[in-house]
Amino acid sequence: MEQCDGQDGMASPATPGSGKSKLDTLSKEDLIKFVKKQIVILQKAKSKCTELQKEIEELKTQSSGGTDDAVIQELTTRLESVLLEKAESHQSMVSLRKVNEKTKEELKDALAAVQDLQKKQESSENQHLNKIEVLNEELKTAHEKHKEEITRLENELQESNVKHNTLSAQLEQQLEAHLVQQHEVKRLLEEINRVQVTSEEQILQLRQQFEANAEKQKNEITRLQEASGNSVAEYQNKMKNLQEEFQVMQTNHCDEVSQLKEQLESAASAHQKELKTLEEDLAEQYLLKGKSLQDELLTCRTNNEHQLNQLKEQLREMTEKQTEQLQGEVPKESIVEEERLKCLEKSLKALEVQHRLVQDEFKYTTNLKEKLETELNHIKDDFFHEREDWEFKINELQLSKEEYMSTTTKLTEEVKSVNDRCELMMNQQSYEIQVIEQQHAKELSTLEENLRTAAEKDIQEFLLEAENLKKQCQMLLQEKEEAQTNYENLRKNMETLQTELEESASKISHEFEAMKQQQANEVHDLQQKLRRAFSEKDSLQETMNRLQAEVETKNKAIEELNQMSKLEVKIQDLMSSIEQKESTLTKTQEQLEISLREKEELVTAAQTSEEVSCRLKESFEKEQAKCVDFQQQIQVLYEDRYKLQERLDETAAKLDVAISETNSSYHKAEELENRLGAAVTEKEHLVAEIKNLKDFNTNLEKQKALQKDTEES
Q1: Which of 23, 227, 545, 587 is the most buried (most CB within 10 A)?
Q2: Residues 245 and 204 in one domain
Q3: Contact residues for 610 (Cβ-Cβ < 8 A; gap 6+)
Q4: Euclidean distance between CA atoms 551 and 566, whole angstroms
């Protein structure tokens, strides 16, 4: 029995080691399976123990001695099997304890991780809440600013609307004044219709003025032609000078670029040569220094080795001499030898110092080599940077050259356009001059024909003269009708202008130039008509003077006739009518001047209204730009808000993920706790079973002891 116990004790410590190595490598599922197997084995052991107890009871009942040995052998074999199972169960218990400790540690780590996660979650929630509060405050401030800006813009729009209303009222007032002026013009037309007969002398004066103006225009045209020719010549000279300067600048620029390129290439080549020379010099110096240092090191080593060998030989000789002459040595020789030893030690120290110096020099040369390499790298980097700078400058020069070329092309195009405009102006002026000359020639031809017809008439016949006077009156009536038609055309033009002004009250800024051109053309037409009228007046006055002279001659010739008084009365009547016509013409001229002044005032008012409208447009455009800026700011705010919402959604998603992870970790912890509870219960069951087995073993041992005692007795 004691041998069996010893065998069990030897077997039990060997198996835990193997079980330990296997259980450490197993997973949780494999451990659970292993525990279940151990529980099944324990149940089998329990069943075997019950069977053994039953057999023992049966054996106790049996009293035959021959069968005791067989029973004891069976019992011993069964006990050995039970002990083996006990050792296995003990190993499983040890492994289960280790697993339980590991699970406890894992639970502690998991709980600590859960606490850390909870703390991090709380801190992140606090941070997100703070960020949300800050963002809400920023949004509130942005909304307030936006509201303030909107109110300010509304106020500015109201002010601009008020200004626009005031300007529209002013324009309406001006239109009313224009209507009043039109009524006055109608009244003047009626007065002119009344005063048609008294326009002969004024027509003659107008003809004279027309001739004078024609001469002035001819002089002005010649002067303008000369001035335009001079300006064109000056402009061409300037263009030639500019082209020459441009060519000079271009050549200078090309020369500078070529010089810079050559300088760059020369500098680059010189720099590369310097770098190569420096590298070669440094390499040669380094090789020379390395060779010299290697030679010095070799010489120093050989000297040191030679001196060391000599010292070793001397020491050997000294030791041999000392061994031979230990007893017969003199103290003086010992002192000499000691001095020699000291000298040798000093020489050794000096050699060591030299060796150190050589090592220091070698280190210094290596450091110099590294410094020179770094300097070379720096020089290369500087050269590379300088090369990049020069390339950048060359690119800038090329860009400036391209810009200069583009500006020159633009200038040439502008010069061509100006030349074309000058040619067009010259052609227009020549065409106008030709038209004026043709008109003047026609008028002169008509005047000559009239004079010829008047000269060919018979002076002696008074009746024919009366008929001529009637014809002239008819001509005057026709001219009056022409003037009326011209005036009606003017009135129609004024009416059209009025309608255009009424229509273009909202479009003054776009159509003001057309109005100015139309008004200028109309003024020019009026001036031409006035000149024609004055020229006709001059011609009529000349005819009247001629007729008066003829009448005087006739009066002298026909003094004897009694009809002279009648003619004088008629002449006086004609003179009075002419004076009346002159007075009416002066009045009409004054009224026309007043109307022209009023028209100029209207033009100035329209210009001021156009300027005001331009200012309003500029302010409106500025306000539109401000509105666009505000809209952009609002869009930016909305984008920021959208980004913040996305961030909040991302943080919420992250929080959900973290919460799900914490929940999963909680579930895992609960599962681990449940597993630990199950393992603890299983452990308790195993402990109880082990206790029962121990009790059973103690009972068996007691029974064996009793059996031994009975056998010994």
Answers
A1: 23
A2: no
A3: 508, 509, 512
A4: 12
